[in-house]
Amino acid sequence: MKKHHFYLCLIALLVACNGGVKEEGGDGYKTRLTFGPGEEARIVEAMLSLTDSSSITLKEGTYQFDNLSIAQVKHILIQGAGPKKTILDFSAQSQGGEGIRVTDVKGFTIDGMTLRDSKGDLIKINKSEKVVVTNLHAIWQVADSTSGGYAIYPVLCKNVLIENCYAEGASDAGIYVGQSDSAIIRKCRAYKNVAGCEIENTSHAEVYDNEFYGNTSGFLVFDLPDLSQRGGYVKAYNNYMHDNNERNFAKAGSFGNTWGVGNAAPGSGIIILAASDVELYNNRIINNNSAAIAVVSGFFIDESAGEKMNDKYFPIPRNIHIHDNVMEMGNAFPEPVYAHHIGKVLVGLDQQLKAQDPARKDMRLPFILYDGITTNILTKGTAVNPDSLCIRQQGTNLFVNIDALNIRSKNWRPSTDMTPFTCK
């Protein structure tokens, strides 16, 4: 009995000294590992050697990492003690990769921690399925062009849930879902990013009960060329998008006549670019002081967009339904708009509307901007609303058709007549 007791004590001592505590779990995870601050090297090794159905618990405290990687496993949980308690700091990262990179994982959950200050994206989840990101804060403490592009970044994924998260300081998008199928973003907040949230070339996405504020632009739905799939069937509802009026600090490559988020004008609530089958409803879109909602085609930022058309990209937005939103706007453009290339277009549009109609001298730009570029330019048709833009909103000063095709000509006549676009 004494010998048996000695062996039990020895095993307990070895486990206690081994850092990660490995045990069988009763919650579907066959292996559970627990670590604390100071065990970073063991954590890196554990993530690289994970087997299917494993969980890693990170105790309260601050951890210093260069980067972390998880690949080609199933049913994985990374669990912290809460965003204010478990903090993963990547500020000493030696190169511009992701803080956490997850690749080809079927069943991945990360819950209850803060990621901060990586050189590249804070967490990139690539080619994975059944992804859950919950109770996660992803933050750059200094928000400028040196920040990484994306804070929370699932791409080429299926069945994504992002909930109860917070993103701050991204030089592209705080919460971004790209080239994915079936995504839900709910009960999240995004602050002080270039774009609060972006759905790009993603199909069947729902974005609801979120708050996007203090960004350059609150919410983007983009379809871009030369990617693996088209997006569509995106719904955004019950969101509060307000005070998105900040300077666009996207990296230089995102500006100009390219397809990046650098094209988002300061003061934009929602921008739909070349995306189809989008419904916006029951949102509060408040004090985004350039445009509440903009619906534009790929031609608006790239005259050669038609050359990029194929079965995965169509540059003209179709089947856009905007209804029952509350929209308000401040008294003036935000100051950063005057230095931004698309911002200058909006200021010029405002001046043109007032020149056409002196009664508008004390009015702001209408809430909904539509570039007016339709499939007629491809079909040589003459239909007034061939792409089914459908608006059902109460109030005045709701809409302007920018007449973007004529913006450089003497015949430029933007129109505030919403009649052809009122839902029948």
From TrEMBL:
SMART domains: PbH1
Pfam family, one: Beta_helix
Entry superkingdom: Bacteria
Domain Right handed beta helix residue range list: 99-223
Protein name (database record): Right-handed parallel beta-helix repeat-containing protein
Biological source species: Chitinophaga nivalis
